[in-house]
DNA sequence: TTAAGCAGTCATGTTTCTTTGACTAATTGA
DNA sequence: TCAATTAGTCAAAGAAACATGACTGCTTAA
C-alpha cells in the first residue's frame, strides 16, 4: 500500500488529472493551530491555566474578539477545555487537554526547520 | 535550561506581563506550509517534478496567480527549487528539495491528529 | 501563418480574517 | 455606592488572502 505526503493511503480517484487525488487530512489541523494568535495561545496554555483578561495582556497587540474566537475554536476542537471555577472570585479557566499537549509536538517539529 | 512549547530556550524578556515572552519559531514554518494550495502543491511535488500548467490542471479550482505566488514562496524558502530545462521543448521544472522532503514529516505528524 | 501550449504578470474584484469601538452583565474592593 | 475587574458580544471598518479576466512573449506543431 502506498502512502502519500500526508501519511494517508492512496485510494480515491476523483479527477482524471489526479490519478491518486486526495484531500490532505493535515490541512484542518494546520488550519486549527495556525493564524495570528493560536500558536502563542497554545504555547501559553502549555505553561499553565489561562484566564481571559490575563491572556489578553499576555498577547500585546491582540484584541478581545480575536482571542475569544481563537479560544472558542480551540475549545471546540478539544485542544483547550473551559471551566467555570466556583471559587473566591468566581472565574473561568482554560486548560490545555491531553490532545492539546500532544499536538505541541507539531510545533516542536516545525520549529526544527526554522 | 527550560524549553518552551516550541522547543526553544527561554531567555528573552520583552514585557512585564510576559516573564519569558518569546515568539514561537514554529509560526513562520506553519505559515509557509499553510494556505489554500501549498499543502497540496507540496504533496504533488513529493511525487515528482512539477511544471506550471500541469500543476494548475492538477489543482482543480486553483488559478495562475495563487499557484504562482505559492510556488514563489516555497522557492524563496528553499522548499522547492526552480530550474529552466534546456531540452527539447524548453521548459521550467519545480523540484522538492531535501529540506522540503524532510518537512513533509510535519504533515504526517499533523495528520495523525485528524 | 496560425493556432495552441507554456509560463507567467498586472489590475481589479471578492471573500475571509483581523481589529476597533461601543456595549452588556455579574462580581468585588474601597 | 462607585469604580474596577472579569468575561465576554455585536456591528462595522480595515487588511490580507484568494480569484478573475485580460494580456505578454516565447516556442512548436499543423
TrEMBL record, chains A, B:
The keyword Transcription regulation applies. PANTHER family: TRANSCRIPTIONAL REGULATOR, MARR FAMILY (PTHR33204). PROSITE patterns: HTH_HXLR. It comes from Ohtaekwangia kribbensis. Keywords: DNA-binding, Transcription, Transcription regulation. The keyword Nucleotide-binding does not apply. Residues 24-114 form the HTH hxlR-type domain. InterPro entries: HTH_HxlR, WH-like_DNA-bd_sf, WH_DNA-bd_sf. This is Winged helix-turn-helix transcriptional regulator.
Amino acid at each position: 500500500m502506498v502512502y502519500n505526503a500526508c501519511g494517508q493511503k492512496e485510494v480515491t480517484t476523483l479527477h482524471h488529472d489526479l490519478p491518486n487525488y486526495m484531500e490532505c487530512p493535515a490541512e484542518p489541523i494546520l488550519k486549527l493551530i495556525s493564524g495570528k494568535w493560536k500558536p502563542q495561545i497554545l504555547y501559553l496554555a502549555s505553561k499553565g491555566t489561562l484566564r481571559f483578561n490575563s491572556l489578553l495582556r499576555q498577547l500585546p497587540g491582540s484584541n478581545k474578539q480575536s482571542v475569544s474566537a481563537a479560544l472558542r475554536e480551540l475549545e471546540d476542537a478539544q485542544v483547550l477545555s473551559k471551566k467555570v471555577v466556583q471559587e473566591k472570585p468566581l472565574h473561568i479557566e482554560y486548560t490545555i487537554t491531553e490532545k492539546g499537549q500532544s499536538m505541541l509536538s507539531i510545533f516542536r517539529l516545525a520549529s526544527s526547520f526554522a
